[in-house]
Amino acid sequence: MMKACELSQQALVYAGEVLKAGMSTYELDRHIHDFIVKHGGKPSFLGYHGFPASSCISVNEELIHGIPSKSRKIQEGDIVSIDVGAFIDGFHGDNAYTFTVGEVSEETKRLLQVTEQSLYKGIQQARKGNRIGDIGNAVQTCVEEAGYFVVKRYIGHGVGREMHEDPEVPNYGKAGRGVRLVPGMTIAIEPMVNQTTEQVRVLGDKWTVVEGNNKMCAHFEHTVLITEGDPVIMTLTSH
Ligand code: MG
């Protein structure tokens, strides 16, 4: 599984490197697809419940599950969330990052910083003896203290032989509640944060989820291993 997570991470890093203004989200997805296949993996998302691409690429007010498209051109000032998983040797990895293209506003930068920070606050709670609610509570507290909104309709998940497994990993909750964390569990923690509302809408393509008021939103994700000691971020292996 470490291998799958490493490939997932490398694909995401590579996507960030090739991402540039003028490129279509379809083109970016092709780069991601080819990278994973070239390294012996299979894109986890391709064909998942009929999903037609190898990554989810969500721009600006799009939160998650954006379908790569030839007509969607990335522009200077956009924020681009890329969510990608790789399957290799029987296991999946899963990770996401929201990139900036050129200059974005200070407010948007702050939204991205807070969302990424909330991911790490959640990861700090992913330890033996804690419960799922400790993770969600840490994420929610970080986000709400900054004045933003946790999306509750979509949540993190266990990950392993299947891309989505138990337990559910909400980005909200009460400390000390929920499934107890035990060494060996592997979970995807993925805060999804809106600027102005916890509401979201699903577009007519049946996939793309957007911020309820069409404002900015952000998404960061790591696959994390519960151990006897500190959590191990499996999709952060190159340093
Ligand atoms: Mg995920």
Notable features of this structure?
239 residues, single chain, 27% helix, 26% strand, binds magnesium ion, four-stranded antiparallel sheet, alpha+beta, five-stranded antiparallel sheet
**Strand arrangement, largest sheet?**
8-7-9-14-15
- Main sheet overview: 5 strands, antiparallel
Helix content: 25-40%
Order of helices and strands: HHEEEEEHHEEEEEEEEEE
Number of helices: 4
Gyration radius, rounded: 17 Å
Percent of residues in β-strands: 25-35%
End-to-end separation: 18 Å
Task: Please describe what this structure looks like.
By secondary structure, this protein is of the alpha+beta class. The chain has helices at about 1-20, 25-40, 105-125, 130-145, and strands spanning about 40-45, 55-60, 60-65, 80-90, 90-100, 150, 155-160, 165-170, 185-190, 190-195, 200, 210, 215-220, 220-225, 230-235. The chain contains 4 helices and 15 strands. A hairpin with a 6-residue loop joins strand 11 and strand 12 (about 210). Helix 3 runs antiparallel to helix 4. It is globular and about 50 Å long. The chain starts with a helix and ends in a 6-residue tail after the last strand. The structure holds magnesium ion.
SSE layout:
Layout: H1 2-18, H2 25-38, E1 42-43, E2 56-59, E3 62-64, E4 79-88, E5 91-100, H3 106-124, H4 132-145, E6 149-150, E7 156-158, E8 165-169, E9 186-189, E10 192-194, E11 200-202, E12 209-211, E13 217-219, E14 222-225, E15 232-233
Antiparallel strand pairs: 1-4, 2-4, 3-12, 4-5, 6-10, 7-8, 7-9, 9-14, 10-13, 11-12, 14-15
The chain binds magnesium ion (MG).
